[in-house]
Design a protein that fits this description.
The complex is a heterodimer of chains A (375) and B (415).
Chain A: H1 7-23, H2 26-33, H3 41-49, H4 68-81, H5 87-101, H6 104-116, E1 121-124, E2 140-142, E3 145-154, E4 161-167, E5 177-183, E6 189-194, E7 203-212, E8 214-216, H7 222-258, E9 260-261, E10 264-265, H8 270-299, H9 304-334, H10 341-353, H11 358-374
Parallel strand pairs in A: 1-4
Antiparallel strand pairs in A: 2-3, 3-7, 4-5, 5-8, 6-7, 9-10
Helix pairs in contact in A: 1-4, 4-7, 5-6, 5-7, 7-8, 7-9, 7-10, 8-9, 9-10, 9-11
Chain B: H1 7-23, H2 29-34, H3 47-60, H4 79-89, H5 100-113, H6 116-127, E1 133-136, E2 152-156, E3 159-170, E4 177-183, E5 194-200, E6 206-210, E7 220-231, E8 235-236, H7 242-258, H8 265-274, E9 276-277, E10 280-281, H9 286-314, H10 325-344, H11 362-373, H12 380-391
Parallel strand pairs in B: 1-4
Antiparallel strand pairs in B: 2-3, 3-7, 4-5, 5-8, 6-7, 9-10
Helix pairs in contact in B: 1-4, 5-6, 5-7, 7-10, 8-9, 8-10, 9-10, 10-11, 10-12
The chains are: A alpha+beta (375), B alpha+beta (415).
Bound molecules: flavin-adenine dinucleotide.
Flavin-adenine dinucleotide binds at residues 101, 134-135, 137-138, 143-144, 168-170, 220, 372, 375-379, 381-382, 385, 397 of chain B.
Chain lengths: 375, 415
């Protein structure tokens, strides 16, 4: 047993942190937040050049083939920096779906473009309010074309292709769902950007009107592929959340050391100390759950689905907790547009909903624990 | 990042498992499994005798304190091997509870400060459970503020003469030895005038009075010292350096209790799987699932946090203040879990008798014991202070008594 990243992985983390400190300061996040761009193109290009987009993509498909632990390390740093780029939709969702279920031809076509930053991908699953479920998928396939609407779709308006969950049968069960790969630039799809709580990351509505659909994976296997993709993405997004939580804690700590009230740094008041101690506790529990998730992801262990749900729940709690308490520690300043606290607050809440709600993952976790106990 | 055993670890695990399988007192397995927090009762047997016999058997085969050096009764096992041993020992580890203070706190302090001759003399019987040790720190005037203690030690020739009172001393009534912190100089600020000793609990002038606890048990005691003589050779560390010596004890305390505090979660999960609620198992209820999931990730988070700490220990790092997290999280969790388990039982949850209560009253016992977990070995508030100050680097609390000679510090809050 060894429950830590290797020295090489820690070096990669330092490298990513330095790179992001330079290329992704809060100013860059705000540019996207304030609508000056739909994502940070320079940063995206830089991430490609660093090899970060293809870190878990095998060399034969243009990646560096380093692996998933390395991807976790990078995810944490992107989360710390609130990187305003379509990384999670392209790398955690689209690329992972292609790696898991894509045909050789699909992989050859899209994975090198992902690694090089030429193609942005996403997953189109949700259709409005509610949690992921086969019954909630109304968008239907017939004669190889898709008709229906998906929202919210992360980065939907800037993506080049989408993996789309569609109804291919009518029994109302998992077997009715199939996955399709749709080239969003090929016609038949309109994209409309939507307002959302974290405008530093875009959300869109995609309307499919007879769009040409290429099957991804076997017919009627869509739901089981999706579950695996979601589990993998859950671990990776959890690392982004832990990175964000850690940074929010650090901001709160630094402010508590600087700000004087009643003649003392506010960090010397026990009520403030205890807020920060509790932030540390939730960030630490989340990190530990994430490490277990990282191990399960990188080895594709049988424990992955349980580990992913635990990492997801714990990291969602930690980021929301730290982001909200960071504002509290900053007082009135924390609620100003100028201070960066709200950037973390926004992102923490957007990520909390990115793969379905907390209650959805709670359900998943308990189901999986029950299955394990029954086995 | 690797969760699996290395080949050496797997070999160690196999050895441990085989030995436990062949030697553990299996006749008590079921009762131990069912035992609730703070109350292990074995029908028709004296728990202290059973515990000592198991510990002795382990000691004879070198498994008693696997992580201790060989010369003091261990086998020099690595931190990870120690955990593997605990995992394999499973419920039989509950028998070891009464040795935790001695082995987890007194032992490491002796290792750091006793003479080589003393270590060879006192440590092996401590490891083997033949001799039980207790920790005489807290006093009526010094709990969280340990350095506020008043028990005096005065030099008389080659001896020290002890007068004063300790309180909340767990296991004093069956202990053979204790480590004792005293005040040797009341004219200097409180942290500077302390000195640490170890002593024979059967010494003349030591009087032990059991205290009845809020849950009805009597596991801790008052201990009175009247002209008790301790030879200078039983001093641990320099005169006036007792505070630093005690920090060794407290740090190990956090590590040894922090890594293993019960959370109540496995019990609650099992309970919710079997309890019928509105015609179905409770675990199928949405609200129940949500509660369970939230506790599940706290329990797993703690588990993997301790694995990370062990990985750091294996690299040669020392146990640090971050280990305060274990008891802080588990302490309030077990209390909340117990309250929730009772709530699920509705009006019947109030009953605590083994015949009438669900799961033989396990959660009711947990409810009544859990307040202590949040106090013993450092209160929640003190643990938060430690995290804030020593991990996050925030300023220390204002200490108005810091530079004041001890004998000039006021003794009551209200005049
Ligand atoms: C079951 C049990 C077993 C024990 N076993 C032993 C033993 O074997 N040996 C031994 O030496 N001791 C033992 N203790 C004593 C234990 O270490 C003390 O009870 C504990 O440290 C708290 O001290 P106190 O009881 O004096 O509470 P106090 O220190 O009086 O605390 C009262 C309240 O004030 C709060 N408080 C105090 N100081 C601060 C501060 N600076 N900031 C914020 N809040 C503060 C506390 O958090 C608490 O809420 C045991 C206690 C229990 C309950």
């Amino acid at each position: 047993m060894n429950f830590d990243f290797s020295d090489d992985q820690k070096q990669l983390r330092d490298q990513a942190r330095r790179f992001l400190a330079e290329k992704c300061p809060p100013k860059a996040v705000r540019a996207v937040l304030e609508g000056k761009a739909d994502y940070d193109r320079d940063l995206w290009k830089g991430l490609a050049e660093m090899g970060f987009l293809g870190v878990a993509i095998p060399e034969e498909y243009g990646g560096t083939g380093a692996g998933h632990l390395e991807l976790c390390v990078i995810a944490e740093e992107l989360g710390r920096a609130l990187a305003p780029v379509p990384f999670s939709s392209t790398v955690y969702l689209a690329a992972e779906a292609l790696l898991l279920a894509g045909s050789e031809e699909q992989k050859q076509k899209w994975l090198p473009k992902i690694s090089s930053g030429e193609a942005i991908g996403t997953l189109a699953l949700f259709e409005g309010t509610g949690n992921p479920s086969p019954a909630a998928v109304k968008l239907a396939v017939s004669n190889g074309t898709l008709t229906g609407t998906k929202k919210p779709v992360a980065d939907g308006a800037i993506a080049d292709f989408a993996i789309v969950a569609a109804r291919s049968g009518n029994s109302g069960r998992e077997a009715d769902i199939s996955l399709f790969l749709v080239d969003l630039k090929a016609g038949g799809v309109t994209a409309k950007p939507l307002q959302n709580v974290d405008p530093s990351r875009q959300q869109a509505e995609l309307t499919f009107a007879g769009a040409k659909a290429e099957p991804l994976g076997a017919a009627n296997e869509g739901w089981s592929i999706l579950s695996r993709v979601m589990d993998r993405a859950a671990v990776l997004i959890a690392f982004e959340q832990v990175g964000g939580a850690d940074r929010a804690l650090e901001m709160g700590r630094d402010y508590a050391l600087d700000r004087i009230a009643f003649g003392r740094p506010i960090g010397s008041f026990q009520a403030v100390k205890h807020i920060l101690a509790d932030m540390y506790v939730s960030a630490t529990l989340a990190r530990s759950n994430c490490y277990y998730g990282a191990w399960a992801l990188s080895t594709d262990a049988g424990e992955l689905s349980e580990a992913a749900a635990a990492a997801r729940i714990s990291a969602t709690q930690a980021f929301q907790h730290c982001a909200k308490q960071n504002i509290q520690v900053h007082g009135g300043m924390g609620f100003t547009w100028e201070f960066d606290c709200h950037l973390y607050y926004r992102r923490s809440n957007a990520l909390a909903l990115s793969l379905g709600s907390q209650s959805y993952w709670e359900d998943q976790l308990i189901d999986r624990m029950r299955k394990k106990n029954a086995a | 990042m690797n969760f699996d055993d290395t080949p050496q670890e797997a070999e160690f695990r196999a050895q441990a498992r085989a030995w436990i399988d062949a030697n553990a007192p299996k006749q008590y397995e079921e009762e131990l499994r069912k035992a609730s927090l703070g109350r292990v009762v074995l029908k028709g047997a004296n728990i202290l005798e059973v515990a000592k016999a198991w510990q002795k058997k382990k000691a004879d085969a070198g498994w008693a304190v696997p992580h201790w050096p060989k010369e003091y009764g261990g086998r020099g096992a690595s931190p990870i091997e120690r955990v593997i041993w605990q995992q394999e020992e499973g419920v039989f580890g509950k028998l070891t509870a009464m040795f935790i203070i001695g082995q987890g706190m007194c032992g490491p302090t002796m290792m750091a400060y006793a003479s080589e001759e003393q270590k060879r003399h006192y440590l092996p019987p401590l490891g083997s459970g033949e001799k039980v040790w207790c920790q005489l720190f807290s006093e009526p005037a010094g709990g969280s503020d340990v350095a506020g203690l008043r028990t005096r030690a005065e030099k008389d020739g080659n001896d020290w003469v002890i007068n004063g009172q300790k309180i909340w001393t767990s296991g004093a009534h069956y202990s053979d030895y204790g480590i004792l912190i005293t005040r040797t100089d009341p004219t200097v600020p409180k942290h500077k005038g302390l000195t640490m000793f170890f002593l024979d609990m059967k010494s003349k002038g030591v009087e032990i009075k059991p205290i009845k606890q809020a849950n009805g048990n009597s596991d801790f005691n008052e201990v009175y010292f009247t002209d008790v003589r301790i030879p200078d050779s039983q001093r641990l560390g320099n005169i006036g350096d007792g505070w630093n010596v005690s920090l060794t004890t407290l740090m190990n305390e956090r590590m040894s209790i922090g890594a293993n505090v019960a959370t109540g979660f496995p019990e609650l999960f099992e309970f919710c799987s079997s309890l019928m609620l509105d015609g179905g198992p409770a675990i199928e209820d949405r609200a129940v699932r949500s509660k369970l999931a939230n506790w599940a990730v706290r329990a797993s988070g703690l588990r993997y946090t301790s694995f990370r700490a062990i990985s750091a220990l294996s690299r040669g790092e020392r146990p640090g203040p971050e280990n305060s997290i274990g008891k802080l999280v588990a302490g309030s969790m077990i209390q909340d879990v117990a309250m929730y388990a009772l709530d699920l039982q509705g009006a019947g949850g109030v009953l605590s008798g083994p015949e009438d209560a669900e799961v033989a009253g396990k959660f009711q016992a947990m409810l009544l014991r859990s307040p202590a977990t949040r106090v013993e070995g450092g209160t929640d508030e003190i643990l938060r202070n430690i995290i804030a100050e020593r991990v996050l680097g925030l300023p220390g609390d204002i200490r108005v008594d810091k530079d004041v000679p001890f004998n000039q510090i006021p003794t009551r809050g209200r005049a």
